[in-house]
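Writing this down once: the sequence line spells out the residues, with the fold written below as integer tokens. This is how one looks:
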Amino acid sequence: MAPHVRALGDPRTDPWQENLTMTATTGATQSAQPDRPGRSDGVCSEFTVFTKIKPGHADALREDLVALADATADEKARAALRQIGTLHDARHVIFDNDTRFMFASVFDGSWDTYIDDFAKTVVGARFDKVFSHTEGFPGVADSGVKDWFVSQQEPAGVFVSSYPDLTVQQIWKDQRVDEAFEAVLDTPEFRAALDNPANAELLATPAFQKLMEEAAA
């Protein structure tokens, strides 16, 4: 029997994804807080916290954000983000005349797992340094950090994702498949296959025609 081939972007989890991401880690610490703020659209959820900057810490926070931006570009940090495998995007903003700080992100999966996974990587240590400039932050390793985040978090009035059915892992997979298919398109062997009368029946199928249309778009 021929293997089942799923369409790109199929929202079901692949076995390799479960092994790759920290999201599948068992034994994650659960907070006593049963409800988590934040809105979701499909598999994507938003996370936004507004905190108060400690008096006199704005410049130090700004310096640490510059260092964080530089560190995020290095291979170790990128590897950690891939290990976590659930973060779509994130942003840090200092506002209200250097008195308040906002962190906002979009992620896949559960809120608790999202916090747990970041705390286990080098990213968590760097976030610890950034948030140390905000009032009341207990540290990412503290048992009360989730309750602190809940107390600082505000749900978005509206949250919309352009791809609500695609996880970070599926987007990465689609990119890899697209790059591989584009490489095939550039080979003389593929062009020869298109010109081969023996393949005419396959090439005329709606599925193949759709594939070629998408490749040309």
